[in-house]
Amino acid sequence: MDIWLHAAKMPGPVAIVRCRHWMNKPVGLQEMKEFMGLMSTFKSVHGTYTTTSTYTPEALQFAKENGIDAVDGRGLLRRIQTRTRQRQQALLAVAFSGQH
Q1: Proportion of the chain above pLDDT 90, given as a percent
Q2: Is 56 within 8 Å of 28 (Cβ atoms)?
Q3: Which residues, in sequence order, are CB contacts of 32 under 8 Å at separation 6+?
Q4: Closest C-alpha to 76, from 43, 57, 54
Q5: What is the DSSP letter of 95?
Q6: Do 19 and 50 form a contact (C-beta atoms < 8 A)?
Q7: What are the backbone angles phi and psi of residue 79, rounded to the nearest 5°?
Q8: The pLDDT value given to residue 19
Q9: How far apart are CA 67 and CA 65, in angstroms?
Q10: In angstroms, what CA-CA distances link 43 with 12, 13, 22, 72, 73?
Q11: DSSP states of 25-85 as a string?
């Protein structure tokens, strides 16, 4: 799933968030390059790639070099933990439903 973030009076998306729900497959370089291509096509300077899994070292290096925020499963859980208990439960239910 891709989430497109827009701002008033700004053409196109100001940021794109890609969400991948993978448990046993790390996000690789090819997936990260495809995301960068999407960002370039829509001239989005901000991008976040979020997965319930992990990243290959090459994908992490590519993300770092291109200013992409790479959030893995542990990072996602840390972000969820900053929410209220009720919100945490709702977010966890969504984040880990139908694991692939």
Answers
A1: 40
A2: yes
A3: 49, 55, 59, 62, 63, 68, 70
A4: 54
A5: H
A6: yes
A7: -65, -40
A8: 86
A9: 6
A10: 8, 8, 27, 24, 27
A11: S-B-HHHHHHHHHHHHHTT-SEEEEEESS-B-HHHHHHHHHTTEEEE-HHHHHHHHTTS-H
Q: How confident is the model at residue 69 (pLDDT cuts 50, 70, 90)?
A: very high
pLDDT at 28: 96
Which tokens belong to 26? 């790390």
Residue 38 has pLDDT above 80, yes or no: yes
Residue with tokens 């196109």: 12
**pLDDT score at 96:** 67
Q: Round the average pLDDT of the chain to a whole number and report it.
A: 86
- Note whether 27 and 18 are within 8 A (CB): no
